[in-house]
What we know:
Number of strands: 38
Shape: globular
Structural class: mainly beta
CATH topology: Maltoporin, Chain A
CATH architecture: Beta Barrel
Amino acid sequence: MPSSLFCPRLLRLSAGAAFLLPASSLAADQPQEVTMQEVVVTGTRSPHPVSEAPVETLVITHEDIERTPASNLPQLLKTLPGLSAAMLDDNLTADNLRLTMRGMQIHDGYGLILVDGRRVHSGLGGHGEYGVSLNQIPLSMIERIEVVRGASSALYGADAMAGVINIITKPVPSKAEGSAGVSYGTYEVMPKAGDSVRSSTRRQGQFNVGGGMPVGKNSGFYLHAARQSDDGSAVDPQAAQRDTAQGKWTSRLSEALSGELGFQLGKSRQDLAPTPGVTASYNRQHDEHRLSGGLDWRKGAHALKVSSYVYNNDFETGYAGSTNGYRFGDIGYVQGESVYTFFGDSHWLTAGLEAQRQDIDYSFNNKLDALVIPVRQDVDTYSLFVQDEIYLLDQRLTLVPGFRYEDHSRFGGEFNPKLTVSYRTDIGTTWRASVGRAFKSPTLRQLYYNDLYLHSTTNYIRSNPDLSPETALSWNLSAEQPLRDGRWWGSLGLYRNDISEMVVQTDTGEVYDGLPVTSYANVQEARVEGVELSFRIKTDWDGVSLKGGAALTSSENRDTGKELPYTPEYSFSLTPSYQFADGKTGIDLPFIANGPQYRDQKNTQEVDAHQVLDLRLWRLLGENLTGAVELSNIFESHKGDETYSPRQGFGLLVSLTARF
């Protein structure tokens, strides 16, 4: 056992979870019960079994990903209470603008998106230079997903107001292994009211291959590549394709020191439907790369991790002469981080330093006079964060005070404290409560344009460099209870976010080229509060299990009394599963119901309540071969949005997955 596991709490945890051991030290014949507990790290930056994590964390496991009838990440997340992807289609270019976490739009930076703990930007489904898309990593590359709802700026800084979604990719395996998968299918596109679509039957498909192995006694690697394609869900087919490659190398350099190198490459593109007078061949293109490296030193009760990464997205959105705008150039991050952790008997102290630069170097060309407007900006952030996990009352009571001080080159210093309390009772109930401050920086479009931007043919937009960051006070209270030796499990929670200095679009009263000019201002306060329920049940009927969740959400722009857009009043998910006695065949039947919501700040465009039912039937065709048939949107729900947009209807997908 590594010397870093010497303290009593780590010894207890390691006895029930193999995650605390380096991957290279796990024996191939490790008993199954050792890995029963998922480990989570996102909520505290330290390892905990998910049931004992002081900060409530939702986990989508590798098994969940394999058994979902979904092709993209937003569709996978829609089953989690507090997250809504109610109006998103299951294709590469699905508009992530409509994805919310606790009533706040992730696309606009209210939720922080991480890949292996590192920030990402834009991508297909995002809006060019300012939006953030979840749909960047194919599901075949993902090992698990950790979701922390609620203010997380104490650990992660800006843009973690609603929470954090950490996409964790597949690790270096402990023994030689490989996998390959292929799928092909069709789906229907339903027109919006009073309109029609051309070539309503569309195609989708994907192929992936991956594998890795140890190298010598102390090293190993993992490689994965995937191609995905579909025809979108617009009026005309718009073929989209994404090619992604990932690689990792790990080495144990000494008894106490290990290192890791990694890369991720992605190239995605959406073709343009034939348009009279337009010679452009594509509507969006993203060429992304991520390079990362780190050293991890552990000795006794001390651990130090030093890491860095580079991320760049070379993008084009639109085309020259497009009335929807043409933006092209690069946006990226460069970051270095050092995190020290002391694993004491009753304290786990974590302290870290982080330096980050966001490079903005692109242009837009969409004014009627065809001028090219450059946007050049470096945004530097230097941060210090400190957190202490204090274990009391025989480790049943945990106090987690922490703070992060962030010095932002545009806004100066931001201090974000947070206190989390967790208490486990004698009957196994875990109570969690937290209160914290969070902040969000305005988007690139809101801050950095130095000239007018033509937004379609409706209005011009002017940035406001004098904007202040938005701030929020967030609190959470939840109770979690396992029953019947863990066969039943449930969690019920309450939360509230009070947001100040909310940035909204405002009318300047100006007119340019016959169109109104709008800008941005800190004028509003908002409140989002709600109740969230999660549950899992393994029934007394052999092979039958249930999992699901529900959320009631109330949102209000407190200046206008209106609801925030894309926030359904309620959501409910239920996935019954049945596995036949031979263990070779299974059925999953996800059902999603969403309440009414609005598309706009003025609450004039209402989206009706709706339900969506999917089905996945899988069968083991051999020892290492699985086949599946997936039916999506079986009853062709228009997702309450028939008035405004075409929607992806019934779909059929057939897939094969092999392991070797």
